[in-house]
Amino acid sequence: MTQFLDARTSQNAALFNSISIPIPVILTPQLFGQIGLITAGAGTNLRVSLKGTITVQLPRALFVVRITVVRGTIATDPIVYSGNHTYGLDGLLNPEVIVFATTDFNPPLMPQLTYTAFISTNLLGTTRVGPENFEGFVVSD
Questions:
Q1: N-terminal to C-terminal alpha carbon distance within the chain
Q2: Based on CB atoms within 10 Å of each CB, which residue in 64, 82, 110, 138 is the most buried?
Q3: pTM for this prediction
Q4: What φ, ψ does residue 85 adopt, rounded to 5°?
Q5: pLDDT tens string 88-127
Q6: How far apart are CA 88 and CA 59, in angstroms?
Q7: Which residues pair with 8 in a beta bridge?
């Protein structure tokens, strides 16, 4: 029988256009969400489900936004999700909402599992405008 262990949410901005955080360096991950999930009382087959939303205003032309989620606190920790999102000129007029979901099956059993979400882009001028959130839960058998 599946046992619920913990759930957490990291929310920087709940509303559309409520923040204005530039991404100042191309191809350099910028943290936008982090959660720690407690695994006390975990049984076998630990499973983590993660999802998030981030909204960006695009600078110009064709460019790529990369979302990366790691098990840990720095961008070089083990990657559990990485996705590229390519945009064109539509983003000049309307901010782009990026939604992602991933899982981490059988991570190492530790008292707390930390997950961190990063965003990077290949073009200067990209701005995080909100909403943005990152959340997850952990279960075991």
A1: 6
A2: 138
A3: 0.94
A4: -125, 120
A5: 766 556 788 999 999 999 999 999 999 999 999 988 888 9
A6: 10
A7: 136
